[in-house]
Design a protein that fits this description.
Length: about 110
């Protein structure tokens, strides 16, 4: 399950930040997940609890913020919202799209102690 390794990546970041900013516990993690990132929020939640066990983020709350997929449609010359990576433009059906948001997975904010 690739969500497990994503959670291990999150833990690495938390540990680095803890060193830099000198906190010892993470209480809440706000994670931004783009709808085009192919990350399953439910699987991620599950993996998160397992991976964080015994770490500085044990029993931390994971808040997932889903970000819409956004793309530029060359035919319509405007910004559109897409649900899936290989969707066409909802307005004109064209597939010539430049995706510019919704592929990310990143830590947006932390509540620490
Ligand atoms: Zn279009």
């Amino acid at each position: 399950m690739h969500e497990m390794s994503l959670c291990e990546g999150i833990l690495d970041v938390l540990q680095q930040q803890a060193k830099q900013q000198q906190f010892v516990r993470v209480k809440t993690v706000w994670l931004e997940i783009g709808k085009l990132s192919s990350v399953e929020p439910d699987a991620l939640r599950f993996g998160f609890d397992m991976v964080m066990q015994g770490s500085l983020a044990e029993s931390a709350t994971l808040e997932i913020i889903e970000v819409d997929g956004q793309a530029w449609c060359f035919a319509c010359q405007q910004q559109i919202i897409i649900e899936h990576r290989y969707d066409g433009c909802p307005l004109c059906g064209a597939y010539q799209l430049q995706i510019n948001d919704g592929e990310q997975m990143r830590i947006k904010e932390l509540e620490v102690a």
